[in-house]
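Hello,

Our lab assistant flagged a job as stuck in the queue for most of the afternoon. It eventually completed. Since we weren't sure the result was trustworthy after the delay, we are filing this so someone can double-check. Below is the sequence as submitted and the structure that was eventually returned. Let us know if re-running is recommended.
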Amino acid sequence: MPIFSNRKVRKDFDFFKACSWYVPGVGGMFSVLGWFLIGMILAAIVCMPLIFLKVDMCYIILVMYPVQFVPVLVHVKLQSSMNSTFDRGYSLDSNHFGKSGGALTALLAVIATLGASMMLELLSYYLPEMSDHMKETMEALTGGPLWTSLLSTAVFAPVLEEWMCRGVVLRGLLNHESRKAVNGEVTVRKMSPALAIIISAIFFGAIHGNLWQGISAFLIGCLMGYVYYRTGSLKLTILMHCTNNALSVLIGHFSGESLKDAKSLVQVIPAWEYAIIFIVSATVVLYFIKFLKDVEIASESGNCDVIPNADDRFEAEKKEKEASGEQNILNN
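-- returned structure --
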């Protein structure tokens, strides 16, 4: 199709959907990380007046957290817009839940997330003590009113981090095509799903910026990455992320002083009780992984729905009009 042909590009005001044509590889992932770091600087500048006015940190975080994602959002949107004419897109949010349906899959995802969170308590027990600065930061995140803690950690974080880490980075790594010319022939290669999931989980852990959250984020990121690979559902990974973070906030608010000063649940309950919890949790997580294996995979890259580019849509609409015109002639 000629580049300068007269065609209409369909406008779509769904921001997340409008990002579907940006499919970053490893290089693009570092670009996303770079814009995220710029966003952190921007957020610090924007919130500087609030800090000088001595506004409580729990309220400052409500402003700071979304602002740091703005440069990434703009970058991805612009890249997607430039690619949408000629490149195939991949939906950030699909609905491949198999015969069991979305409701049961979501329920099992929540239960498996709770199980994984309980298992990670053992990891927290063996990690070194947090630094005083880190303790102050965590206190700022969870020490304010319950509604601010839930809004920042169980709403903003799941939506924005899942959009970036699974919806952009993992979706990109799964579907990005690298082309290489060998003896005059062009070969197309894609990253293996397992490697893509691991790399995106490392990215997820790295953006937390500290050892204590980073290792746990990497491990649970692998689970959420596998869920995204099998289902293509960003809604599902957001739900899992929300469940994990909300659990931490609620435990911190309602557990009392005994757990507040402890590194992990392992320190405040008998070993035999935690052993039972760990075994039950591991069984639930393994069952959920087995459950997801029954979901059929559309391609080796997973279950992200393919979205045609503007040229493909133009040709499809043109053929549809031609077929409609021919049908009208036959009817007359």
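-- support follow-up --
The delay was a queue issue, not a problem with the job. The result is valid. The longest helix spans residues 146-175. The chain is about 65% helix and 5% strand.
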